[in-house]
Amino acid sequence: MKKLSFLLSLSLAFLLFLGSCTTTKQNDEKLSVPYVQYQLDNGLDVILHQDKSDPIVAVAIMYHVGSNREVPGKTGFAHLFEHMMFQQSENVGQDEFFTKIQSAGGTLNGGTGNDQTIYYEVVPKNALEMVLWMESDRMGFLENTVTKSAFANQQNVVQNEKRQSYDNRPYGFNQWVIAKNLYPEGHPYNWTVIGEMEDLFNASVDDVKAFHSKFYVPNNTTIVLAGDFEEEDVKPLLEKYFGEIPGGEKVEDMEPQNVTLTETKKLYHEDNFARTPQLTMIWPTVEQYNKDAYALRFLAQVLGSGKKSPFYRVIVKDKKLAPRASVFSRSMELTGQFTISVNANASTSLAEVENAVFEAFQLFEEEGITEKDLEKHKAGLETQFYNGVSSVLNKSFQLAMYNEFAGSPGFIEEDIAKIQAVTIEDINRVYDKYIKGKNYLATSFVPKGQVDLIAENSVDAGIVEENVLEATQVDQSAIAEEEVIAKTPTEFDRSVEPAKGPDPEISVPAVWTDETANGIKVYGIEQNELPLVQYSIVMDGGHILAPTDKAGVASFMASMLMEGTATKTPEELEEEIDLLGANISVRAGTENISVYVNSLTRNYEKTLALVEEILLQPRWDEEQFELVKSRMINNVKRNEANPNYLAMVAFDKLVYGDDNILAMPTSGTVESLESITMDDLKDFYNKAISPSVARMHVVGKIDQERVVTGLAGLSSNWEAHDVVFPEIAAPKLPEKSTIYFVDVPGAKQSVINIGQNAVPRTSDDFEKATVMNYKLGGSFNGIVNLILREEKGYTYGARTYFSGGKNYGTFQASSSVRTTATEESVQIFKDEIEKYREGISDTDLQFTKDALIKSNARGFETLGALHSMLTNISAYDLPFDYVKQEEEFIKSLTPEQHKELAQKLLDPEHMYYVVVGDAETQLSALKNIGLGDPVLFEL
């Protein structure tokens, strides 16, 4: 599962204005999310929030336990137990948590942070009781199921998660170095959330059971229900399922443990995967909700956010040392840290970067902060608030977090008051108190053999990397068969799954359409829940319009459109957007260029006026041209160190061939980007930007008349011209399946990517292919994931999928596996794809049908989901009720038809097998797969 680090940045991330019984209004009255709170006799805190806008319910359970409750030598337990809680409980069988929730049309996951563990589900409202049954079972009736074999499997899974997230990626060890050196030995943040590999290997069943008994108890937990339910119905259910679980010993909240550095520390590491150097500087600060934490967050914004910030002006614009400089403040339960991160341009001295950091500080001290700076950084708070409450899941997270860490879900009123109260004097004060002249920790991560680039006076960080041939793993085969799991006596028969009521009726939102005089096709959905509007203007074309020797020109041009207009400098354009509290971006995809906007409804016309300037009056700023080019080239260089990126590039080259633009990354290559001139961008703009190929998608609290009226300027000022699309021939399948190996010496994992060209998104077979694939690898309960992760413990995850557009389509099967499991994993993929063509069971087909059809209850909740629906309709000429039509196909699908589709759309004899890993140890073994000698593939 995932680590929920995003939950640690609450105050400015999702702003919830909570009150027990207030109504939602602006200006004079508080915005609110009404809630009811009470406590069961065992100490479980219950929070209920009704939202009947969609027939769904979110359930979030937050345990006040994270890695900070662990002790040295036994790290990673909180995260490891999070995995165990997805396996089974006394009354819910092996892997049935995912199966039952997905069959009901729901989604689920969990995450562990430094301070908390959370589990969540979002389900159609008729499945709520089932969720309460399952969540209560793993809270109170789990420990007997923690057998040696189940535990060993998840030990291996988590070790592979660590390899994937830390060991086998650029800069992956940086957080480990920071934790070990910023916090003293024994401090609860002295280790990473995922823990030490040795501790994970040596952990015992008794260890984790003791950890669970102490912390995973009702009186250390908050449960939140948010969505479509009746209070009088759910209260008895909560008492029934959770009330009999005994509370544990009192778990005392931990007191802040702020740290100071008695000297500046500098460490370095030669990174096997890095291609560009990275400098990170960290100053210790204060815990969350401390008054200074609010001002520190504003300080980070002032220093590093935007083109007017000191860090951008000194490091990026003036000295051209890096494409960006990130500054952020993070406050946690026990303490905080203020971080500057600079991923420098290739071959750049980090000593120069460090000096530039202090020059940026000096510039900040000289120029100070203006009231307009403060206004700009506060302007987006209202928009962020509404985006944060656009889903019942987000609301459930926030209610739980405030309750556990601030003592009440209503703490937001105090929280927002502290945000609004921050002054210029506060920001200057915390700069002087925590940053100016204070000791700090600096880490230099540089490519192998480039130690000359490290910051001055740095010493080796002492990282010991895992030997790929001696990978840590628990031998699952040595564990004897275990006895039947004992069941704890209960007040009622928990082995009986509660019945679900009738599936809720799904109504597809009404879509309206229009067209401007110059040819822009407009699609809209009016949803009045929040005063927000999301819209995009999408133009067909994008990357496919570029010649292969200019790959990346579409992305380059898209970036340049945001670098000022004819009447606004880049800085002025950015500030205009910020003062509206809006987000505007331009992106280039494989087959389109899009302008995306998220704004308060009241600012619709103002944002649209800016979009018109961006599209029709580009500035073509020469200075920004060089900065964007440098940024894009260095991003490509960084990507070239990422095994997953290498696997993608190799696969595309094999499928499409060297002369096809689809074989080239949309971000371009170093060579293609270096060749692009300003004239190339202007030429591409002139041939690609036209209303004749434009479609607009608008969702939110805005009606058709206002949308169309606002488009008057774009309609009258934007002249149409024909856009000429190249002929892109469908590639042929390879003559036979062959293994291609990309060498990354010393890789801790092998990235496997197997597949072939397949049907495009416009084919009648595309949706059928997606349905057919679901049980193979389209979900957590897909066959390949159940074998490679849940049975073997070789990987953190494995999947298969179909993807495509108008001009292309592929089938791919992928995973990152432990290096020493490469051969067996490739063989498993090959065998399971071949077997899948022989048909699946009636049970597996019914699981597919239930999961896909019932999940539509969640499909129209957020503006993002509605916007995605409109873009699909317009891009692929789908009927407005295409969701219902897909449902009819799924309902009628028979096992025989499923088998026919698998045989038609999967061709295992003609696939590309791409493996990115350590050739010295793994290449020769792949001969045993039976696909001939593997080919060492050069990119």
Sum up the structure in keywords:
33 helices; 6-stranded mixed beta sheet; Cytochrome Bc1 Complex, Chain A, domain 1; 939 residues; alpha+beta; disordered N terminus
Question: What order do the helices and strands come in, and which of them pair?
Answer:
Blueprint: E1 36-39, E2 45-50, E3 56-63, H1 77-84, H2 96-103, E4 107-112, E5 117-124, H3 128-140, H4 148-167, H5 174-182, H6 197-202, H7 205-215, E6 221-227, H8 231-242, E7 265-271, E8 278-284, H9 291-304, H10 310-318, E9 326-331, E10 336-343, H11 350-367, H12 371-379, H13 381-388, H14 392-406, H15 412-421, H16 424-435, E11 441-447, E12 459-460, E13 512-515, E14 521-526, E15 532-540, H17 553-561, H18 570-579, E16 583-588, E17 592-600, H19 604-616, H20 622-639, H21 643-656, H22 670-675, H23 678-688, E18 694-700, H24 704-710, H25 712-717, E19 738-743, E20 749-757, H26 765-777, H27 783-791, E21 795-804, E22 809-818, H28 822-836, H29 842-854, H30 863-876, H31 882-892, H32 895-905, E23 912-917, H33 919-922, E24 935-936
Parallel strand pairs: 2-6, 7-11, 7-12, 14-18, 19-23, 19-24
Antiparallel strand pairs: 1-2, 3-5, 3-6, 4-5, 8-10, 8-11, 9-10, 13-14, 15-17, 15-18, 16-17, 20-22, 20-23, 21-22
Pfam families: Peptidase_M16 (PF00675), Peptidase_M16_C (PF05193)
Domain Peptidase M16 N-terminal: 46-163, 533-643
Domain Peptidase M16 C-terminal: 203-381, 675-852
